[in-house]
Amino acid sequence: MTDDRSLHLKRQLLDEIWEEIGSLQGKELDEYLVSIGLVPDGLLQDYTEALNAALAARKRARFEEARRQSRQESSADVGKLLSFDLAKKKAIMAAIKAHAARTGDMTIAARNQKIEDERDLDSFLEACVRLDVIDADGNLKG
Amino acid sequence: LNKPTQGDERAGALVALSDHQKKQLAAYAEIMSRGTGNDAEDLLQEAFARWLASDKPVEGPEQTYNFLQGAIRSIRYNVFRHAKVVRRHEGERAVANDDDEEGPLDQAADPAASTEGPLFVQQLYDLCHDEEVQLLLTAQADNATPHEIQAELGWDEQKYKAVQKRKRRLVIRLMLEGKLT
Q1: Nearest CB to B172: which of A9, A20, A53?
Q2: Nearest to A57 among B19, B49, B140 (CB)
Q3: Distance from CA of B181 to the nearest CA of A (A)
């Protein structure tokens, strides 16, 4: 027998499996399933469990996508803030520190963070955006 | 405000299938998962994931049911195809690194070979001890139509259907037992 014919026969047999199972319903289906060693109610349970798992996986995927988008947006926001000139960034930092001193909203470590150069300043402002202390324009929140 | 989303509608279509449709799909997944290395629940879950992600309109239970059946079969096919690609890739690496001696890779069983028609049919012939089923298989391998088979073997339609049924059930049993992959 040629490979093509064997493959054709194999495909035909796989089609017939579905025809066989799909042709039965109700009691006849249950009896047949039992005769081949399957448990009808167990199959219903398997269906439900697989469905629940698929729905849970979809929820997780949506959550991950939302988190990824939020991170992207947040990073775009930070990019805008960091593009401000140095004087403006220093003014924003001063406003944050003044606000923190008034409200006690920041930890001492954060308030006293040493800013030696513009890179330190950028890190500080970036952290403030992520902590929701300021918005992307450097305005204080709350 | 509480209008269901499209995703809810697709999930609802999976819940809405009748019990017998659910049993048929789960049984089909059981049979088709054998030899793939995945269990039936993985196969079903992947079929559901395809349905949930699909753009195919939700028309009715029959369409959903047919989609899932096609998905289960396609996933099985992809598993074997993937195994074949991996095997070929590993084989090429083995050849590239080769020495003359036969390594474990050369001696290992060939998982992808089971996807090939000849091996499947050979396994079936070897395991089938029902002479009438063997005759039917031989005729079908020659692409004979049901009418030609009946004429050649001198069977009436009832006999043909009875042997056909025995053959289908034999294939299902052997697949479930993991003897036919």
Answers
A1: A20
A2: B49
A3: 10
Residue given tokens 């269901």 in the structure block: B4
Residue B33 corresponds to which tokens in the numbers above? 């998962």
Mutate to test the interface with B, among A47, A48, A52, A58 (most CBs of B within 10 A): A47
Tens digits of residue pLDDT in B19-62: 999 999 999 999 999 878 888 999 999 999 999 999 999 999 99
What does the block give as tokens for B102?
């036969």
All residues of chain A having their beta carbon less than 8 Å from the beta carbon of residue B163 are none
CA angle A123, A124, A128 (to 5 degrees): 115
What distance in Å separates the CA atoms of residue B121 and residue B176, rounded to the nearest whole number? 16
pTM greater than 0.95: no
Per-residue burial over B51-78, b = 16 or more CB atoms within 10 Å of its CB, e = otherwise: bbeeeeebeeeeebbebbbebbbebbee
A12 contacts on B by Cβ (under 8 Å) = 140
Runs of H (alpha helix) within A37-141: 40-82, 86-103, 108-111, 118-130
Residues of chain B with Cβ-Cβ distance to A7 below 8 Å are 116-118
Condensed to tens digits (0 to 9), the pLDDT of residues A88-123 reads 999 999 898 888 888 876 665 666 667 788 888 888
* DSSP symbols for B65-114: HHHHHHHHHHHHHHHHHHHHHHHHHHHHHHHHT--SS--HHHHS--GGGG
Nearest to A51 among B48, B137, B168 (CB): B48
Contact B173 A9 (CB under 8 A): no
| CA distance linking residue A68 with residue B86, whole number of Å | 32
Quick: pLDDT tens for B156-178: 999 999 999 999 999 998 888 88
Asked casually if ipTM beats, i.e. exceeds, 0.95, the reply is no
